[in-house]
Specification:
The chain is of the alpha/beta class. It contains 14 helices and twelve strands. Bound molecules: 6-O-phosphono-alpha-D-glucopyranose.
Length: 368
């Protein structure tokens, strides 16, 4: 079927706005509404209980989804979880888990390096779970177990709705692993399920920041560099925010772990450098804010993406704020993606780049 942009100027904007529906479609197959529990394909579930370790392989934005999942699998399921870039993993004869599994994340299911990494795991008898958006794809066909995302066809080269769909499915997998490993109390499972079910509505709320993000984007559009910072589960989101901006606006952007700043990149801070900080209020918030103070003292302009509690606590230490709905350690990283996508989109729009077909990029990299 022909896919139309409809009222939207670009597929990227349309796909950003579709995330309420694409998330609902991706989450629902893995939730039992009557019992408020998660349920994933049995083949995947049986791998979780006895696993000693997992490797998670992907490229680009899908890799950042896998990297975010590390925080959930380790903290909630207590499973060692090692995300890696497919082009690195495949060539170094990696040591695979003895009793564990491999996880492959891909929108297209056709990325050459990711497919090659999957074949390596198969040859070495490590079962593969595939989180893919195209169920007829090569990666889906060759994996032992498929846990599809249902983001729908993604046309914009820069991935948006596929990313949040991947995050939501990975979250369900982490919860299922936590349960299989005896680390999830029934009450906690119910709370997480409620929070997942609320995500579509919360994404709609998160999209309300668009007008404000557009203002900030106009300002950023004239800058040469932008730094993105995050800690813990928001560190991969900072990386994804920087990637999105690079891809569609061609502005140099770097994502950094906030705590690593002092080991190098702080040397780059000069007056007027925009620093986007992804920091909803969590157990690491105060640490991130102390890093914000360090860059602010050197003239950086702080754009804080946070929830109401975080924005209140940051007070005057942020020059611009972007408000996220309330959430938890699973929903807030997913919701954080929305303003990051909008920021990249509106900066690109201001600069007049080809948002849906950025120069030098391909939607699916099927050759090495
Ligand atoms: C290309 C696309 C990216 C995507 C990456 C991985 O580089 O431009 O947007 O994240 O491939 O693609 P996959 O289909 O494996 O998720």
């Amino acid at each position: 079927a022909l896919i139309e942009r409809g009222e939207y100027d670009h597929f990227m904007l349309k796909e950003i706005h579709e995330q309420s529906e694409s998330l609902a479609r991706s989450i629902m197959p893995y939730i039992n509404q009557a019992t408020q529990t998660v349920s994933v394909p049995e083949a995947a579930e049986t791998l979780f209980a006895d696993a000693d370790r997992a490797v998670a392989i992907a490229c680009g934005t899908a890799f950042y989804a896998a990297f975010t999942a590390k925080y959930w699998f380790e903290q909630i399921a207590r499973l060692a979880f090692e995300p890696d870039i497919a082009s690195e993993f495949r060539y170094r004869r990696p040591v695979l888990p003895q009793k564990g599994f491999s996880l492959f994340v891909s929108q297209s299911g056709e990325t050459a390096d990711t497919l090659a990494a999957l074949r390596y795991c198969r040859e070495n008898r490590t079962p593969a779970i595939a989180v893919v958006n195209v169920p007829e794809s090569s990666i889906a066909r060759e994996a032992a177990s498929i846990v599809p995302t249902h983001a729908g066809p993604e046309i914009g080269v820069a991935s948006t709705k596929a990313f949040t769909a991947q995050l939501s499915v990975l979250a369900v997998l982490a919860l299922s692993a936590a349960k299989a490993r005896g680390h999830l109390l029934p009450g906690d499972e119910m709370n997480y399920v409620r929070s997942l079910l609320a995500l579509p509505r919360k994404v709609t709320e998160a999209l309300e920041c668009a007008g404000q993000v557009r203002e900030i984007a106009r300002h950023i559009a004239g800058k040469r560099d932008v730094l993105f910072l995050g800690r813990g589960r928001y560190y991969p989101l900072a990386l994804e925010g920087a990637l999105k901006l690079k891809e569609v606006s061609y502005i140099h952007a770097e994502g950094y772990a906030a705590g690593e700043l002092k080991h190098g990149p702080i040397a780059l801070i000069e007056k007027g450098l925009p620093v986007v900080v992804v920091a909803p209020k969590d157990e690491l918030f105060e640490k991130t804010i102390s890093n914000v103070e360090e860059v602010r003292a050197r003239g950086a302009e702080i754009i804080l993406i946070s929830d109401a509690a975080g924005i209140k606590a940051a007070g005057k230490r942020a020059d611009h704020v972007i408000l996220l709905p309330d959430g938890d350690d699973i929903s807030l990283p997913i919701l954080s993606a929305v303003p990051l996508q909008l920021l990249a989109y509106y900066v690109a729009l201001t600069r007049g780049t080809d948002v849906d077909q950025p120069r030098n990029l391909a939607k699916s990299v099927t050759v090495e």
